[in-house]
Recover the amino acids of this structure.
């Protein structure tokens, strides 16, 4: 039994990509807003991006030496069971030492060992599943945790029905009411209001196929006289800049990483994006017409399933990764100047947004803690 007279202690585990990290941070921020004296500890995977992004957000994090399985036979795969077992025992020590009132897992390599440890010793635990198709780890943990907060309907096929709650994915709240920021966003990027703006996103790590598809038709994009905000990802930034040498970049704003996403979305008329769960949730709240290019390199083809969930609602356009070089820029230019199509997509994608996701999830965490009294 926990002592609820002392400050709440919460462990949050998730990472590997921004799609797991930023929802975790959004949950932490909302929990901290409601419980100022709460102690929050993150547990991530050593060497992954959460080990820098979480401290930047102002939270403590400790790491587990755990990684995923590779698609081919490697030494890393042979060592995987041993790393997993070691990570589990380290997670067990962390949970016992920190004595959390609740544990939240948002996915990623470290989330599995932490939730296994917390449920093993009876700590109230919750999964936040971002995708429209649950991952193998979360499916196995679904029977052990008390609550599963999901972003898509129909997730009862993966989890016990009585544990599932449709909350949406928690995202930054500054991307609401973007129309009021439109003028300041255009000024921020030194853009003009009478020209269309295309936003190209590759996720927090960048997307090679999107970058190559844009570069293959870059002259067509330049000649179209559209304004472009292009996030290449850190891995591809210098290469893209080099390839753009000598070209007219007056209407291009090229970045390795974008921080002021509220201004980015506010300035944009159409968005090209991967179909990660976090990206889609932001697009729903931003109400932006989107062309989604699912990554083929994601476990269990999550991104294609995420994109299809929107396509079925006439809320987005999908182009296969293999067709990007041929079709992407043409499709983007066509959509930019099709006002009726854009209006329809904006209306339909807006209906899918869940602006109160973080608050709803935190309230579920509070219920789990209070139930232990």
């Amino acid at each position: 039994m926990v002592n609820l007279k002392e400050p709440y202690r919460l462990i949050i585990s998730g990472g590997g990509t921004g799609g797991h990290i930023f929802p975790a941070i959004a949950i932490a921020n909302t929990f901290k807003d409601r419980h100022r004296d709460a102690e929050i500890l993150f547990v991530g995977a050593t060497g992954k991006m959460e080990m820098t992004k979480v401290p930047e957000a102002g939270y403590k994090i400790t790491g587990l030496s755990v990684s995923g399985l590779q698609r081919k036979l490697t030494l890393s795969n042979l060592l995987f069971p041993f790393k997993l077992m070691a990570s589990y025992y380290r997670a067990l020590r962390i949970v016992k030492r920190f004595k959390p009132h609740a544990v939240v897992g948002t996915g990623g390599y470290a989330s599995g060992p932490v939730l296994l440890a917390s449920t093993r010793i009876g700590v109230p635990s919750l999964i936040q599943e971002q995708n429209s198709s649950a991952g193998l780890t979360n499916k196995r943990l679904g029977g052990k945790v008390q609550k599963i907060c999901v972003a898509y309907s129909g997730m009862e096929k993966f989890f016990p029905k009585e544990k599932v709650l449709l909350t949406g994915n928690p995202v930054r709240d500054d991307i609401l009411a973007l129309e009021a920021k439109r003028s300041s966003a255009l000024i921020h990027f030194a853009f003009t209001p009478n020209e269309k703006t295309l936003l190209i996103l590759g996720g927090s790590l960048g997307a090679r196929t999107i970058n190559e598809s844009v570069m293959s038709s870059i002259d067509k994009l330049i000649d179209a006289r559209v304004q472009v905000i292009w996030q290449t990802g850190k891995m591809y930034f210098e290469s893209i800049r080099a390839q753009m040498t000598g070209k007219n970049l007056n209407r291009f704003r090229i970045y390795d990483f974008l921080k002021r996403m509220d201004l980015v979305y506010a300035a944009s008329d159409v968005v090209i994006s991967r179909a990660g769960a976090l990206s889609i949730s932001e697009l729903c709240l931003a109400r932006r017409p989107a062309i989604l290019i699912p990554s083929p390199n994601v476990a269990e083809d999550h991104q294609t399933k995420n994109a299809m969930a929107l396509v079925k609602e006439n809320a987005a356009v999908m182009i296969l990764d293999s067709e990007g070089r041929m079709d992407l820029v043409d499709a983007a230019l066509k959509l930019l100047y099709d006002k009726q199509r854009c209006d329809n997509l904006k209306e339909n994608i807006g209906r899918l947004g869940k602006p109160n996701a973080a608050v709803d999830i935190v309230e579920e965490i509070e219920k789990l803690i209070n139930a232990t009294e």
